[in-house]
Write a structure and sequence with these properties.
Layout: H1 4-38, H2 41-44, H3 48-81, H4 88-100, H5 103-114, H6 119-126, H7 138-162, H8 166-174, H9 179-207, H10 211-216, H11 225-234, H12 239-261, H13 285-315, H14 318-322, H15 325-361, H16 367-379, H17 382-385, H18 388-399, H19 409-447, H20 451-479, H21 483-488, H22 496-505, H23 509-531, H24 534-544
């Protein structure tokens, strides 16, 4: 049990973290609102360019969501129907790679396959077709969004299908149900409950997409709100237009988040007491061939761009590139920003989780404590409501009257990247913290351990691994981000993603490929470092059982 002073410190820490997040976001939004009023936002709203950008943002997000869902359904069904085949685990792991891959690297991989000099156009040229396939524009944006979001939708759908009780398949087999009937009466009710939430998440990701559209947009006709904000400040220096675009971006994300709350979580029937049964519908020869073709196509679609990044990166002179002063500058800057952002995200998340845990344990909660608990739960969603490029725009306008905003660029990037990593860090830390407190609460109380003694002897040994996991994920996320850096990046503030993008913009694609491979390896090593040792304990437990 915590002492009264420890409870007060925990709640105060959570309240202080919440106030810091709210203040950082509120200042940016308030400056945007004030600047919008001063620039005459009512007249700017009728700007044909603004309406065209808004229309394209919604169009590409809707189409990307539909395509990701439509392609994910048959692939998730194929994985669920074929629970045992060589390479299934690796295929599922392959689907996790795009979700953790820096978007910039994925875009380069897609260019290596679908670009003008990519593998597909080379094959078409060998067949005598001179007209190349262009990845730029709406088609390229949709392709890239499906590459990143279809695996996410597939994994979420697969998890839902695998939770269907085994007795359902037994009854379906006993009734001799055909695959179409199984889909209609068993699979579709499960997927129907999952699709709204998955679609809302993917739509949010596509509507706030920045790096993919920046690289593959192909001109003013294929520009989203976030890219238009960047262009308005970076190239045109039109704060009024940037403000109106930022406010529209906030309105769209607010509407989507509000719509997502209207869909209740799907009912989880759970696993029943029987052992898992092999699905009979997946053993029909025709179904096996169809599933094999679908899974092979998915593996090729996801694997070829990743292989392209590796192959083209290895063709560059990596030793020469790694020895260049500009790379060393970018690497040191990126690692320092990633470390600072990761530590800040972990500290804020831990304070929020600890405060929520203490409040939930209170027997008599006051109205203020209930409100604080709700606010703490919603704090990590603020970055979804106000995307990074919008935050960067607000603070850029806030600092411009007083000083050169680039002087504080590194601090702003650290703060924005920490907020961006907050939802992921909380998701990693909170389950581990709850289980740890439940296991050690009585032991610590019986030993009379409090404060620093408890932290050193009980909390740190028990939470060390999840803390390092959360830190590594936050660092990898910050390391590969181009959003906030794109607005402030310069020769004096060079990060690895900005270095890759600048080389790509100057048509030095060989150097860009080499730097992209190095960036991808560093992010991969950070992700692996955060998960080292997690499988050992599980394996030992299964062995002992």
């Amino acid at each position: 049990m915590l002492t009264a002073s420890e409870r007060r410190r925990a709640i105060s820490g959570g309240a202080f973290s919440l106030a810091g997040i709210a203040l950082f976001v509120a200042i940016a939004v308030a400056i945007l609102l004030a600047a919008g009023i001063e620039s005459g936002g009512d007249t700017t709203l009728a700007d044909p360019y603004l309406l065209r950008v808004l229309r394209f943002t919604l169009l590409q997000a809707i189409l990307s969501t539909l395509l990701s869902i439509l392609f994910a359904i048959p692939i998730a069904r194929a994985l669920a129907r074929q629970p045992r085949f060589p390479g299934r685990l690796w295929l599922i792991r392959l689907m996790a790679v795009p979700m953790g891959l820096p978007v910039l690297i994925g875009a380069l991989g897609l260019l290596g396959i679908w670009g003008r000099q990519g593998l597909l156009n080379q094959a078409l040229a060998a067949l005598g077709l001179s007209q190349p396939v262009s990845i730029y524009g709406l088609a390229g944006i949709l392709l890239a969004h499906v590459f990143f979001n279809m695996p996410l939708a597939c994994r979420l759908m697969l998890a839902g299908l695998e939770r269907v009780p085994a007795e359902y398949w037994l009854v379906g087999g006993g009734l001799g149900m055909r695959p179409a009937s199984i889909f209609r009466f068993i699979e579709w009710p499960v997927l129907r409950g999952l699709i709204p939430g998955i679609a809302g998440l993917i739509f949010m990701l596509c509507a706030t997409s920045f790096t993919l559209v920046l690289i593959l947009g192909g001109g003013p006709a294929a520009t989203t709100l976030e890219v238009a904000i960047y262009q308005a400040l970076r190239f045109d220096f039109d704060p009024g237009r940037a403000v109106m675009l930022s406010l529209l971006q906030i309105v769209i994300t607010l509407i989507v988040l509000g719509a997502m709350t209207l869909f209740r979580a799907p009912d989880d029937h759970g696993l029943t007491s029987g052992r898992a049964l092999r699905r009979i519908d997946g053993q029909v020869p025709a179904a096996r061939w169809v599933d094999a073709a679908l899974l092979l196509a998915a593996a090729i679609f996801l694997g070829l761009p990743l292989a392209s990044v590796v192959v083209t990166g290895l063709e560059a002179n990596l030793l020469k590139l790694a020895g260049q002063p500009i790379f060393l500058q970018a690497a040191i800057t990126s690692l320092l920003i990633a470390l600072a952002a990761g530590l800040l995200a972990v500290l804020i998340s831990f304070a929020i989780i600890r405060a929520r845990s203490v409040i939930s344990a209170e027997r008599s909660k006051t109205l203020g404590l209930r409100g604080l608990s709700i606010a703490l739960s919603a704090s990590s969603s603020l970055i979804l409501l106000v995307p990074p490029i919008v935050l960067a725009t607000g603070w850029f306008l806030a600092l411009r009257p007083f000083c050169d905003p680039s002087r504080f660029a590194a601090l702003l990037i650290v703060a924005i990247n920490a907020l961006m990593a907050l939802p992921f860090v909380i998701r990693v830390l909170e389950p581990a913290y709850v289980i740890h407190r439940r296991r050690t609460e009585r032991l610590a109380a019986s030993l009379g351990l409090h404060g620093i003694s408890r932290l050193r002897l009980i909390d740190w040994p028990g939470l060390r691994k999840p803390l390092f996991t959360a830190l590594s994920f936050a660092m990898a996320l910050s390391l590969g981000d181009l959003g906030a850096v794109a607005l402030f990046g310069s020769s004096s503030l060079m990060t690895l993603p900005w270095l890759v993008y600048s080389k790509l913009g100057s048509y030095r694609t060989n150097d860009a490929d080499g730097y992209a491979l190095i960036l991808g390896v560093v992010c991969l090593l950070l992700t692996i470092a955060g998960t080292v040792g997690q499988g050992t304990r599980d394996g030992e437990s299964r062995h002992n059982d």
